[in-house]
Amino acid sequence: MTSDFERCPACRTPLTTETVDGLWRPFCPTCKNIVSLSPKLVAATLVGDADGLLLIQRNYGAEKGLWAPPGGYVEQGEMVEEAARREAYEETGIEVTINGLVGLYSEPGRPIVLAAFSAERVGGELHDKSPEVQDVRFFPVNDLPPLAFPRDRVIIEAWVQLQGTLRRS
Ligand SMILES: [Zn+2]
Question: Fewest CB within 10 angstroms: 11, 17, 29, 168, which?
């Protein structure tokens, strides 16, 4: 658990935990309040060009060495589309404009909700200078490297469908 939830927000008593409706939650033994945990919002960006889809090779966590679309946490007060654009730029050097929502993704028991956007490359130069990435490349969608998360394949398939829709409109 993050340090945000070590103490009760109302009375500062150290929190214990309770399982409520099958979900693990911080609990204040003084107030008897159950602290509500909101999911964290992650924005991911699917950027295509003539060479395929832009992916980053992760340099951290259990998925180190595996590939995923660029993305990261949305800051409080930040537009979600702006977070998608910012993360793509920070992680790959590619400047994009957002041109569609691929979808909103969540899974039981996972603390994040992922908003996946489709984006168009408008500038920038590909680089791998971010400490969060080992490598960045465009891949043909029919020849993808090992992906970090099973959901990524679902998202990429939805993105491919959306590209067809965007071209027709
Ligand atoms: Zn309390």
Answer: 168
Structurally, at CATH architecture level, domain 40-168 sits in Alpha-Beta Complex (3.90)
Domain extent listing, the chain:
1-37, 40-168
pLDDT in tens, 42-88: 999 999 988 899 999 999 899 999 999 999 999 999 999 999 999 99
Cα 13 to averaged position of ligand 1 atoms, centre (Å): 5
Which tokens sit at 105?
């993704």
| Distance separating alpha carbons of residues 6 and 46, to the nearest angstrom | 36
Report how far residue 31's alpha carbon sits from residue 11's, in angstroms, rounded to the nearest whole number. Answer: 8
Task: Say how many Å lie between the CA of residue 11 and the centre of ligand 1.
Answer: 4
Provide the greatest CA pair distance for the chain: 60
Ligand 1 centroid–CA 14 distance in Å is 8
Structure tokens at 87: 């993360």
Ligand 1 centroid, distance to 1 Cα (angstroms): 17
Contact 88, 72 (CB under 8 A): no
The tokens describing 63, both together, are: 């998925």
Q: What is the pLDDT of residue 2?
A: 45
**Residue 124 phi, psi (nearest 5):** 85, 170
The encoded tokens of residue 123 equal 């500038």
